[in-house]
Structure formats: structure tokens, C-alpha cells
User: Fold these one by one.
Assistant:
Number 1:
Amino acid sequence: MSANPIAAILAQYPVMILDGALATELEARGCNLNDSLWSAKVLMEQPELIKAVHYDYFAAGADVATTASYQATFEGFAKRGLNAEQASELMAKAIALAAKARDEFWNSLSAVQQASRPRPLVAASVGPYGAMLADGSEYRGHYGKSEEELMAFHRPRMQVLVDAGADLLACETIPCLTEAQAIARLMPEFPGIAAWISFSCKDEAHNSEGELLSDCVAALESAEQIAAVGINCTAPQFIPALVKAARAATSKPVMVYPNSGESYDPENKCWHGPANSEQFAEQAQQWHQCGASLIGGCCRTSPADIRAVAHWARRP
């Protein structure tokens, strides 16, 4: 495995196709995720469903599976009475499920089919400190934590995910530069593995904490193991301007995997608005034209959305 598998894929293809939502897709298949552990809860209860979702994204054309470890933390599992060893086993299980789905899918393809696409990757989802709090802090930032404190939070979990065999780390929905810099400072402790860092953003220019996205990606420019930077879990209408701002501020590949465009009602815990895969794919082409080279979806996106993206991104 390349130390920078993103670069290896982009050397052969103009777009690296990311997967879509895991948690909301699990909900669509009957899981109740109204829980502080979110999709990590399903690791304990219905792991076969997680594997099935990963498989379906690969079949739709995704080059990567983002694992069910976003909300998986030692602190979160401890609140459920799990000790560190049990928590580590569940985090490693998230990697194993994605890898098994990848291997089963890849082995189902003919040699001709395998030659037409990259062998998919397993990206270990590393959610922000705010996700562990389970209070929406990943969409606000303002933790009041230092870089060193955030490094201490992320270090043991990243170690488990690396040791479990992830191809790269997906550090996602990061609301502030302080946390991104903490992750970047940690990476040399894990030589030989790359990561991406994607920010949650609140408008066309700023991350969730209110800092300019352009400043954030520029600050990560010298971090050699950060293989891509960008935006996720953000409203699609903000994406073109954000991608342009990021593209102008960094030489790294720019990634984008926004929400579907539906709106979330936190009071009633439900989503409103239409879901349209063709429209999502049309928007994705615009994001690519603006400078994004890694494209997928976040909340409320589905294998149908990724299939629609793959239809134009990998057209022969």
C-alpha cells in the first residue's frame, strides 16, 4: 500500500470517488441511531449491516469505505461500561468490516472490471472531539481545549485504527483549525500512513468555528502526511465557493463530501426536503470544475448518489 494512496489514485484518475453516508444509510435500513454512540452503536449490535452498506458503496463505484469509527472513542464507550480493551476491539472491528466488504467485492469482479478502477481503500473515520461530546459541538467548535489536550484525546484512538490496518485516516467534520493542527502534529507518530482532514463549514467561507477555510487549509500545507484537505457535512449550496477558496490556498488535493441538501430538524429528529441523485451528481460535476478531485457524500446521501457520481466521473 502506498504511503499516499490518494496520490496513487489521482495519478491514474481525475476523480477519487468517496462513499456516502453510513449512519443515515443504516437508519434507512432500520437502525435506531438516536444514541450518543451513533453508528458506533451498530458495531456492537448489527455489524453485518455495516459491512453490507460498505459493500453497496463499493458496488456503486466508491474508491473508499469510511469506517463506522466516527463516534467510536474510549470516552464514549466507557460511558457504556466498556473497558479500554473492549473499546479497542470495537474500533478494530470497524476496520475489519470495511476491509472484509472491500475484499469480497474486489474478488467478485472480473480481471477486466478490476482493471477499470482502483482497488478500494479503507479509510478509518476519526471524528472530532465534539462528536464524543454528542452535543453538536462538531458544528460549533469553541471547545476551549489546547492543541496538546486535543492531541491527547486523538492519539490512542488513532493508534488503534492504524494498528488495525486502515489504509489511511479520514479526519472529518473538524470544526476548527486548532483541532486540525493537533491531528497534523500527531501524524509523524504514525509513519507510513496518510490522512485527510475535512472541515465542517457554516457558510461559503468559514468553518464551523468561524475561521476562514482558506486560512485553515493553508496552515496545513507543510504537513506532509495530510494527503488531502477539504469540506464535509456542509450544505451543498456552500460548496462551490468553499472549494474555490481551498483550491486557491493549497497545493494539496481538495476533497468535498457534503450533505444531500435535505435539512435536519433537531427538535423532531427528522429530515425534510427532496433527495435527488441526478441533481447531486450534477452538483458534483460543478464541484469538480471548481477544483475538487475527491468527491462523495455525507449525511443523507446514499449508494444511488455515489453511483450517479461514478457514472460521469468514470465514464469510459
Number 2:
Amino acid sequence: MAGHSHWANIAHKKAAIDAKRGKVWSKLSRAIIVAAKMGGSDPDTNIKLRYAINDAKAISMPKDNIERAIAKGAGEAGGDNYEEIVYEGQGPSGVMVMVEILTDNRNRTAPEIRKIFEKGGGKLGATGCAAWMFSRKGILTIPADQTDEESLMEIVLEAGADDVSLQGDVFQVTCPVEAFNDLCATVEAAEGLTAESQSLGYLPNDTVTLSGDDAQKAIRLMEALDDHDDVQKAAANFEVDEATLAAMGG
């Protein structure tokens, strides 16, 4: 929607800043280690590892870092046992939130996430309280200066994409989870196209538009969740008008 920015786009810009100080790299390294430990070091046969590597490449994580994480995971018979959890909750102004967690201590992480929600004006909810508002999708973003919408649609629809939309200065391409790898390969092979990000995530089926103090509260909650070491990704069903985002320095 023109004049508005979804949380996913705001978060992507923040991730680029976080990557410079290694915070995102640390989280993605953990995801790669766990995927390699669970399914082996070959991304051709280990789809979870392939997705984790895609996420890492999308924010320019160095190849050496990726390879070290794979080697560590593949050679780690013991060590920490990480658990994947999805928490659901409600933020300020009725915003619905999905939080993907990778933790080695559920008993530590759960109360910490609950506290973040409470401090942010929301509450951690029961399983299913927010999931109905979201769909699990493959998501790619492609800079709008690389192509036009019609040309992009011709390329990606044949590869399984189900939607292309202009989100600020990028095109967002979405697809069913099962089409994600084919779509990524198609975009990589297309002349003149380079995905800015590519990952699996939760997309809201509908959104609420926030402005002013409501928007600031929602963004602060999401940033606090993103900053937690055990949080891999956090998704929400709100968007912010560009005037408010500009006033916040976004």
C-alpha cells in the first residue's frame, strides 16, 4: 500500500543495521548449526539447512562464517540441544504477533518473552491465539530499481509465486513453502535480478494501520523481541504510515 510500510519491511532495514554489528549473524549461525546437527551438512538433502543458508546469504553473511557453522553443526554429537518454539501473543492496539524461537532453555526463554510482551503493552497468549491471522510463506524482496512489476511477474509466477507487490522501494514476492527453493533458484538465475532477502516467515492475512504513539509502541515491542538472543524472527500484522515512520527516524 502506497504511503505505508509493513513491519516486515521496517524489520528488514533494521536487520541490515544489526548485521553490521554481528547480531543477526550470531542468530543465523545458531540456526545453521542446529539444522546441520539435525539433518546433516548437505543442503541438497537437508532442506532446513538450505533455508538457513538462504537467510544467511540474504544479509551478506560471509561464506567462511556459513561454512564454519555447518562444520560445527555436522561435527557436534553433543553440546547444546536447541528447541524450536513458536510463541503467539498480542501487542498494543490489538496487534497480533508471531515469534519464532530457537532456545536451549525453554524455562528461561518463556518468562523472558512474556516480560517483553508485558513491558511493551501486550501479553503472551496461548497457542492459536494469533496463528489464524497469518500464513506461512516463502518471501523474497527484490529492489524495485532492478525491474518492473510486469516483467517480474512473468519470471516468478512460472516458478510458483502467488503474489508480487510493491512495498516501498522493493518488490515483495511470496510463494507457498513448497515452491520456495524453485523460486529462489529462478530469481538467482534471472539476468539482472538479485534478491535483497529470501526467507520463510509468517505473513499477516490482514493488517491494521497504526500512527503516532500507537505505532511507536508497536515498533518498540517488535524491536525488543528482535533484540532477544533466542528470537529468530518476529512477525506482526500492522503497518505504519510513512509520516509517522519518518518522524521516528525510520
Number 3:
Amino acid sequence: MEADVADNETLLGVSAVYLFGRELSDLLLRGDVYQPLMGNPLGANGFLRGQLSTDDATLARIYAFSFEGTFVELSRPAIFVVHGSGLNPDDPPPRNVDGDIEYDRLSRSPGSSARTGLGSQIGALARDMKVWIYEKDDISMRLDAQTGSLEQILLAAEASTDPRGMASGGLSRSGGALSRSGGVMSRSGGFIPRRSGDGD
């Protein structure tokens, strides 16, 4: 659940995770398709189902996060389930008694630590960046989107003979000469088949 943003520092702040990103405008998360589970089957805690089925659940591309006073940019932005449209990580601009913006204070003051989780901030976030604040134990979902030709994102990733490939490489999932469950190169034995000897 999204943590409360307040001016006061509380004990809960030590476990807060601040997600910085932008809500996706072209994907709609339909929480109404997640029906409540019937009965209480073992292991069905429903935490993720609960996060996805709320009315304000949405998807956002997250570029960075902060935790325990450290700001970390993701090596590649990822899509996360978030709730609501996010908060502005910057405080409202400081104004004097006449209502004019105090630009000298604005230029040297980062956003509130309650909105960023940071004691100091070098540089500035993009103008349209939002922040979502969660507890570190909250359940969520991460989606890593890839683009490219089918040869790159499907064939090379799934049918490569390179053992360092993304998936099983040349080891097919269902069978074949180099299957996971048998064949010439079995799961348990490199080039040595499970059964050996001339008398077999």
C-alpha cells in the first residue's frame, strides 16, 4: 500500500521504497477480472490479487528508486504495478509574504525528504516525474519489456545453442536430442548418458 506522505519523520520511513517514474497512458489494468478466490485454498494468500484488483491500480514505467537514503537509477526502466497517479516529488515552490516565488531558495533546496526519501539531492528529476511510496514488503509486479526483431527477442533468446542464453538455449523444453529430461545430454550428466556400458 502507498505510504502516507507527511511532513513528520516517523519510524515507518526506514522501510519505505520510493518509486520514481511515469504512469503509462496506453495500457489499462483491468482489476475487475481478478475475482475473489472461492474458499481458502492453501497458499492462496491473494496479496498480488489484492494489489491488482484495486480501483486505482495502474502501470507505470519506473526509472529510479530510493531506499534508506540512497538514490538508484535502474539500468533499464521497468514497468511496475502502482496505485493512483503518483505524487509530485518536488515541494511547492517557496513563496515570500507577498506570494512571490523565492527563486534563491528554490534553486538550492531539493524536494522534501518525505517525498523523495533522500537527505540531499544533486541535480533534479525530470519535470513530469512522479513518485509512488510503498513499504519494502509490499507485493507488486514487475514487467520487463523488450523490443526488437523476432530473431532477436524470440529465436536468439529461446533457440540459441549458447548455454549463456536467456532461457534454456539449445536445451528444448519438451524434448529433442538435447532435452532437459533425457537424450544424449541428460540433465544429470554432460556428455555421459545416464545409462552406460556396452552390456545395456
